[in-house]
Amino acid sequence: MVCKHDLGLAAHDKGTTNMSQFSDHELRILEKSHITCADVTALLGGFVDNELSPSLRDRVHQHIRSCSECRDGEQGYREVIQLAKTLAPVEVSGDVKKRLRQALNQRLGLTLAVE
Ligand SMILES: [Zn+2]
Asked: Does 38 map to a domain?
């Protein structure tokens, strides 16, 4: 197991390789031969927002095509994003933010930071 820092691929490194664009988590997933539902869940936000690298996106796409649970998760995530876009911006207290994140994590299996 080689850490990306050992390979000189730290995020600030402007090397010739484009591996530096991957987070540790994404690198770990790219190294696997099969990605799991948990991996897909962790990448779902980036997948829906089209922020994943093409290779990761393909792998998530492949998994979602053959896994109805993740397909439901993706659908739910997209619905939440769509709904959120229709809402006017509101200032919410830290407590409400925290509970909203907890609820989203629970319902959609997301990993939003809840401090
Ligand atoms: Zn799945």
From this structure: yes
- Rounded to the nearest angstrom, the distance between the alpha carbon of 18 and the centre of ligand 1 is 27
Q: Are 48 and 74 in contact (CB under 8 A)?
A: yes
pLDDT tens digits for range 25-71? 788 888 888 889 999 999 999 999 899 999 899 999 999 999 999 99
Looking at the fold, whether 8 and 47 belong to one and the same domain comes out as no
The amino acid sitting at 64 is I
- Where does the chain have alpha helices with state H? 24-31, 37-48, 54-66, 68-86, 94-108
- The HSE-up count of residue 9 (CA atoms within 13 Å, CB side) is 15
Yes or no: say if 29 and 59 are a contact pair by the CB < 8 Å rule: yes
Whether the model pTM is above 0.85: no
Ligand 1 centre and the CA of 97: distance in Å? Answer: 28
**2 and 39 belong to one structural domain:** no
Does the residue 51 lie in any domain?
A: yes
- Whether residue 78 contacts residue 64, with contact meaning beta carbons closer than 8 Å, is answered with no
